[in-house]
Amino acid sequence: MADTSLTDAPVDENGRTLPESIRIGSTPRITPNELRLIKAQTGASLEGLMNDPADAMQVMIYLRLLREGYKPTWDEAGDVAADLSDEPPDPSKPDSSTTSPPSVASGG
After folding, report:
1. Quick check: 23 and 64 in contact, CB under 8 A?
2. Cα–Cα separations (whole angstroms), residue 20 to 24, 44, 47
3. Mean pLDDT value across the chain
4. By the 8 A CB rule, do 38 and 46 touch?
5. pLDDT band, very low/low/confident/very high, at 108 (cuts 50, 70, 90)
6. pTM for this entry
7. ∠ CA 12-60-93 to the nearest 5 degrees?
């Protein structure tokens, strides 16, 4: 039997292979137009979708894929795993460091 794992990966309407997972962070944001898009795709309100953990996660994944330039169907988004970790700190900004707060570092 041939290995079809690479050919079975979902491909969006642009021909891009969807990632296995995508970072959505711990505090996702949604615009009003995205709410309308979700309702058009699912026929359900966000409130209704958020009452089901799987649907709530799929909303976040679907929107993040769109923001990253993918064109998934609603069903394809359901096959992508969510990475809930926060964005890595930006090393160019001094206040985004992951080091200890000044009170810990100074011993005070």
Report:
1. yes
2. 13, 26, 27
3. 81
4. yes
5. low
6. 0.69
7. 105
* Whether residue 99 has pLDDT greater than 60: no
**Taking Cα atoms as reference points, which of 98, 77, 76, 94 lies closest to residue 86?**
98
Half-sphere exposure in the Cβ direction for 9 (13 Å, CA): 11
Burial class (CB in 10 A: 0-12, 13-18, 19+), 23: middle
9 φ, ψ to 5°?
-65, 135
In tens, the pLDDT along 13-65 reads 778 899 999 998 877 789 999 999 999 999 999 899 999 999 999 999 999 99
CA dist 29 → 22, 33, 57 (Å): 15, 12, 13
Domain extents in the chain:
21-87
Residue pair 82/26 in contact by the 8 Å Cβ criterion: no
- Pairing label, strands 21-23, 81-83: parallel
- 89: which DSSP letter? P
